[in-house]
């Protein structure tokens, strides 16, 4: 098959993957490229190798829409293990400290409440945040720890329920993009006068994309491009104007966007505000 023929038959859309433990997000992308027969695959919202759950893949031109998915809120379940701190803040790291802790469920819930709402959070050294042109996890692998500024995040929900083990609690977290659940676990341990780490992390939702819509890689389903921006408001722009990258007046819609521009049930483009005009940010091939 010629390169031109391959490009014309390559799929385009969104896949909601249920990532299994042991795979990096890059591993999932590489495998999906082989399954789908295209190099144009990207992901939105990295999941740690040990974590499972929802990972969104953009395929073909939909890779250009992934930036509109990144800000969506996330939901997680996990286990909080009190009494032990680790180098990675989760079960994959080396134990760095232990604490004799005896707490009640009421105390744990009260401490979690202090970490709910708009808070400041220091990114962990094992994150992909860049400082001085280097990703923190790269520095951490070299044994280097650097100062990190706290960043504002929002924790919409932080529920903790006791289990049969008095030092293990089931966690349910709903939070803004950019929130580190492992840091929430570590901060909760410190708030209780000791330490803690995270295990069994699972992402159950990214915005409207819930785990019941997710599929394993061997049953990959490519959804239409419109699914990637179904959460956006719709802006009416004639298809012939979209085709030439036409602008629309700034008073055509309220707010800053972005907006999805449709032709029936087909996504044509995503528009954003630019000063006193609204212009195309991404136009999909026809």
Describe the structure.
The protein folds into three domains: 3-72 and 207-224, Pseudouridine synthase (2-Layer Sandwich), CATH 3.30.2350; 74-203, 2-Layer Sandwich (Pseudouridine synthase); 232-283, PUA domain (Archaeosine Trna-guanine Transglycosylase, Chain: A, domain 4). It has helices at 3-9, 25-36, 105-113, 136-141, 181-191, 239-243, and strands spanning 13-19, 41-44, 52-59, 74-82, 84-86, 95-98, 117-121, 130-131, 134-135, 151-162, 168-175, 196-206, 209-210, 248-249, 259-263, 266-274, 277-283. Strands 1, 2, 3, 4, 7, 10, 11, 12 and 13 form a nine-stranded mixed β-sheet that branches. The chain has a four-stranded antiparallel β-sheet with strand order 14-17-16-15. A hairpin with an 8-residue loop joins strand 5 (84-86) and strand 6 (95-98). Helices cover 17% and strands 35% of the residues. With 286 residues, the protein is an alpha+beta fold. The protein has six helices and 17 strands. Residues 1-7 have low confidence and may be disordered.
Features:
disordered N terminus, alpha+beta, 3 domains, Pseudouridine synthase, nine-stranded mixed β-sheet, 6 helices, Archaeosine Trna-guanine Transglycosylase, Chain: A, domain 4, 35% strand, four-stranded antiparallel β-sheet
């Amino acid at each position: 098959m010629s390169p031109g023929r391959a490009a014309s038959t390559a799929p385009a859309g969104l896949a909601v993957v249920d990532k299994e433990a042991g795979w990096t997000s890059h591993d999932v992308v590489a495998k999906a490229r082989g399954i789908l027969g295209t190099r144009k695959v990207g992901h939105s919202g990295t999941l740690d190798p040990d974590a499972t759950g929802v990972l969104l893949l953009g395929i073909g031109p939909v890779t250009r829409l992934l930036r509109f998915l990144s800000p969506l809120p996330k939901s997680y379940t996990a286990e909080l293990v009190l009494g032990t701190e680790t180098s990675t803040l989760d079960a994959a790291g080396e134990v760095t400290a232990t604490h004799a802790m005896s707490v009640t469920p009421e105390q744990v819930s009260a401490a979690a409440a202090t970490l709910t709402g708009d808070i400041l959070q220091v990114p962990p050294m094992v994150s992909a945040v860049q400082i001085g042109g280097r990703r923190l996890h790269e520095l951490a692998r070299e044994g280097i720890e650097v100062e990190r500024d706290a960043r504002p995040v929002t924790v919409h929900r932080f529920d903790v329920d006791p289990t049969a083990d008095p030092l293990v609690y089931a966690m349910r977290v709903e939070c803004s993009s950019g929130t580190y659940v492992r840091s929430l676990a570590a901060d909760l341990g410190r708030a209780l006068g000791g330490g803690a780490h995270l295990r069994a992390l699972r992402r159950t939702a990214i915005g409207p994309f819930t785990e019941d819509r997710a599929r394993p890689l061997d049953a990959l389903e490519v959804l239409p491009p419109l699914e990637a921006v179904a959460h956006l408001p719709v802006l009416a722009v004639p298809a012939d104007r979209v085709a030439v990258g036409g602008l629309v007046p700034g008073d055509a819609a309220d707010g800053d966007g972005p907006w999805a521009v449709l032709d029936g049930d087909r996504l044509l483009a995503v528009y954003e505000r630019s000063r006193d005009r609204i212009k195309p940010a991404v136009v999909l091939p026809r």
